[in-house]
Design goal:
Elements: H1 2-28, E1 42-44, E2 50-52, H2 54-74, H3 81-109
Antiparallel strand pairs: 1-2
Helix pairs in contact: 2-3
Amino acid sequence: MEDIISAGVKVLAIALGIGLLYALVKIVNGTGNTLEWWHLVSSRSSNGVQFADWNKIGQGCGVVLCTVLPAVYVYSPKMDAIGLAAVMGVALLYLGGVSGYAANLRSKQGTRETVTEPAAVPGPVKTTVLENPPLVDKP
């Protein structure tokens, strides 16, 4: 009977969490909001091309993972302070490591500058002719 009650509490907690997330989405998506969901996983380059941003995807996964892992560990029957500190340490290392690794990759990648101006059409070539005076032997 106790297992059924604990399972029911877990289902209720998950339903409550989904309901709160839905309410948050409704509040955030108000009339003056300019944030779109694709902003969380992709970026636009300087020339307007949209691409998947692995830094944002990794940070989003890290936030989810670092929120779920401690919650799961706290509800486990074998929780102790050292284990919780280890889980939180791994969570913080993951969150810091993803952004640091992405920054390292960006620094090795170099700049992403594109030339958007058309190349100049060369005009007529001017040539200059220099005439050398004849060499005269001086007496």
